[in-house]
């Protein structure tokens, strides 16, 4: 399963971290925030609306570049087609992960508090013999969050951005490791675009819908492609 948006809602942490990272990227090094209260309410709201459509650290750079160049309210359609080829996404991603580590070292407990884990997921994961996590987050942060919430950890089964670039790549790695049929593997993600290839290739997929975000587009994609939508992990078959 995916991590952000399925096991954990990291919207607040990603907002704080990406904001600091963008300011470093723009060489505004004197700006460094540690709490949501330090962020403008308009930026906060627009970020939460766009967040479900961000696929990895690099894409936060697109958000801020678009946000600060946009004179009116942000358009989701325009954002999804927005591209500025002059941006150095790899450099931004490097800053992003460095700033995450800085926040964690400054105050791990505060950092953890911005990564809310769903109670029913804690119970569900601890009931399993094992599970895989396929995520574009860094493995170390996943482990810190799981450990703090007393969730069973299978470190060798956490596939992070260093190992995979796409979720279908992760699923095929798992398939090659075990003698499973594709339909034996259940994959859950909150981003419907990550479910299309797995669905078409025969994996059993579900769209998670328990994070309170602007998820209408993903729900419609799921419906159009006959992908089951879960409002609770307890509904899994």
In short:
The protein has 237 residues and is mainly α.
Classified in CATH, the superfamily of the largest domain is HAD superfamily/HAD-like
Name of the level-1 CATH class of the largest domain:
Alpha Beta
CATH fold assignment of the largest domain: Rossmann fold
Number of domains: 2
The main pleated sheet reads as: 3 strands, parallel
Ends apart, CA distance between termini = 15 Å
Helix content: 40-55%
The count of helical stretches stands at: 11
Q: Point out poorly predicted stretches.
A: none
Query: Would you tell me the overall average pLDDT?
Result: 90
> Which descriptor suits the 3D outline?
globular
- Specify Rg, calculated over alpha carbons: 18 Å
What is the N-to-C order of secondary-structure elements (H for helix, E for strand)?
EHHHHHHEHEHEHEHEHE
SS-based class? mainly alpha
Sheet with the most strands: spatial strand order: 5-6-7
CATH architecture of the largest domain: 3-Layer(aba) Sandwich
DSSP strand tally: 7
The percent range for strand residues is 5-15%
Mind explaining what this structure looks like?
By secondary structure, this protein is mainly alpha-helical. The chain has two domains: 9-113, no CATH class; 116-235, 3-Layer(aba) Sandwich (Rossmann fold). It is built from eleven helices and seven strands. The chain has helices at residues 11-25, 41-50, 58-69, 76-80, 89-106, 108-113, 119-126, 139-148, 167-177, 193-200, 216-224, and strands at 8-9, 116-117, 133-134, 158-159, 186-189, 204-208, 228-230. The strands form three sheets. The protein has a three-stranded parallel β-sheet with strand order 5-6-7, covered by helices on one side. The protein has a two-stranded antiparallel ribbon with strand order 1-2. Strands 3-4 form a two-stranded parallel sheet. Helix 11 links the parallel strand 6 (204-208) and strand 7 (228-230). Helix 1 (11-25) packs across helix 5 (89-106) and helix 3 (58-69) crosses helix 5 (89-106). It is globular, with a radius of gyration of 18 Å. The mean pLDDT is 90.
């Amino acid at each position: 399963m995916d991590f952000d948006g399925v096991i954990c809602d990291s919207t607040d942490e990603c907002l704080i971290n990406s904001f600091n990272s963008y300011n470093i990227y723009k060489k505004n090094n004197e700006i460094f925030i540690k709490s949501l209260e330090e962020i403008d309410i308009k930026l906060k709201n627009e970020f939460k609306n766009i967040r479900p459509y961000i696929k990895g650290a690099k894409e936060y750079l697109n958000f801020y570049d678009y946000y600060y160049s946009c004179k009116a309210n942000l358009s989701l359609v325009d954002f999804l087609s927005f591209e500025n080829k002059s941006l150095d996404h790899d450099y931004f991603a490097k800053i992003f992960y460095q700033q995450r580590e800085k926040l964690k070292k400054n105050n791990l407990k505060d950092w953890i508090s911005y990564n809310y884990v769903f109670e029913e997921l804690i119970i569900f994961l601890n009931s399993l013999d094992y599970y895989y996590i396929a995520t574009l987050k860094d493995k170390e942060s996943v482990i810190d969050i799981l450990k703090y919430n007393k969730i069973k950890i299978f470190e060798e089964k956490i596939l992070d951005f260093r190992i995979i670039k796409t979720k279908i790549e992760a699923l095929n790695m798992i398939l090659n490791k075990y003698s499973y049929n594709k339909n034996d593997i259940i994959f859950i993600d909150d981003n419907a675009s990550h479910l299309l290839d797995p669905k078409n290739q025969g994996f059993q997929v579900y769209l998670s819908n328990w994070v309170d975000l602007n998820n209408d587009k993903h729900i419609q994609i799921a419906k159009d492609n006959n992908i089951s939508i879960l409002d609770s992990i307890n509904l899994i078959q």
